[in-house]
């Protein structure tokens, strides 16, 4: 029996996967879209109730379908979920749910996609599972003996969960500032943030203007100039963050975004709370003890809840083992329409961008679809 070789299989039905399927359809190519969960936007369903995009709605939609009227400038969780569901319906994208992909292997001139429901074959496979698929936490000494709660920022929950609690946020990056922004409105007993390096952080708004609206300009600048402009705006808006207790910045914001895939943090009240003394800044965590957290400078603090805002990993190693397409951190060596060592295997939206996830996913989807259609 001759096996059926499909033109494209897209793994993941989030914004990037839907954008890829839609872009391919515009070239007359029908893609099979696999989603391991039972509904679209499952990661959004699982995140905390206050979650919202840090990118403006005008930079947060997929090609050809803006948000409907009435959606806030920074779309909240419910609006994002509704948008993705509507996009799939409107564009006629049939998602195959419950299709957890176990392995992708090379099979001659095409790929074999191994799932719990069997093996499917395709000439092209687009990995659209995201760069923040698996919450990552350092292996801190003594963490298992800590008497308080130690959670990842992905499990933030509700600000009400922190009422009357002493809270330590570990990490002053994008997810760290997200947690701090939400905690400002909580009735926590105390809030502390620990970080190894100074943050690259910009306000969500200047007056009524969303800072992210200027991202196209920043993205078009040479990296050194982009670093300078972000640092200049950060200094103008917040002053010297070292005076608040943060460590010096070791690398420019755009360089960190490009080289280390670290997104620029968005401030929405945290810096003001730090300046007002409502949030304390300390150095990095060295180890945990049953009743306290010991810091790198030898001092110690007590906390009821520790939020590890320590980033994410792709979780792609088991799926792509043996193909040589991942670096030592499990991140793809290529992204978008960049050629790799496995022709026909593509990665979409695997790197953070100053332009935002949705906008970048749409642009990368167009480029990948054009390559597959032979028009790129």
From TrEMBL:
GO terms for molecular function: flavin adenine dinucleotide binding; monooxygenase activity; NADP binding. This is Dimethylaniline monooxygenase. The keyword Oxidoreductase applies. It comes from the Bacteria. InterPro entries: Auxin_biosynth/cation_transpt, FAD/NAD-bd_sf, Flavin_mOase. Keywords: Monooxygenase, Oxidoreductase.
